Please model this.
Amino acid sequence: MQPKQFLSSLSLTPILWVAPFFLWGTAMVAMKGVMPHTQPLFMASIRLIPAGILVLIAAAIAKRSQPQSWQAWAWILLFAIVDGTLFQGFLAAGLVRTTAGLGSVMIDSQPLAVAILCLWLFQEQIGFWGWLGLVIGVAGISLIGLPDGLILALFHPENVQVSAGIEQLFQGGEWLMLLAALSMAVGTVLVRWVCRYVDPVVATGWHMILGGLPLLAIS
Model:
C-alpha cells in the first residue's frame, strides 16, 4: 500500500467507528420527531418494509441466492418475529414514553445481553476484564434507566416505597427499551443459525419485510 493510501484509510477509520452510533442516534431523534404525527407501530413497519425491499433488490443485483428450503424460511420467519416485529415494536412503543437520548442509551445495552447469551449458548469465554465491563455496563444502564425510587430503595428500604418505584418503572418507556434490546440480542444470536441455511444479506431483507408486516397489520 502506498503511503498516501495508508494515511487516507487511517484518517477514515475513526469516522467509520463513530458512524454507526451517530446514525443510530440520529434515527432515534428522527423517530421521536415523527411520533406526534403517526402511530408508533405504523412508523416501525415503515422503517422495516421499504428497507427490506431495498436490501433484496441489492441482493438480486449481486446475484445472491434466495432461500431454497423450508428450514431456511423457518429460520427467517423466527428471525423476523424476534429481530423485526418484537424489536421494532418494543422500540417504537418505548420511544413514545421516553426521550430519544435515553432510549438510545437503553438500546445500547444489547451488546451486554449478547455477551451473556453467547456465554450460555456457545461457552464463549468473557474473561476478567470482560466481566468487569459487563458489571459496569449493567450498573450504568440501571442508574440511567431505573426510577429514582427503586435506586433509593436499595440504600434506604425503610424510607422508600418499592411498590411506588415499580409502578413508576412501568409507567415509563425504559422497560420497553430493555425488551427491545433483549429482542435485538436474541436476534443477533439467531443469525448464527440463519446463515447455515440462507445467504445473510437475503435473510436480512426478508426478515425486515416479514417482520414489518405484523406491525403494519396491528397498527
Observations:
- The radius of gyration is 20 Å.
- The chain has a mean pLDDT of 81.
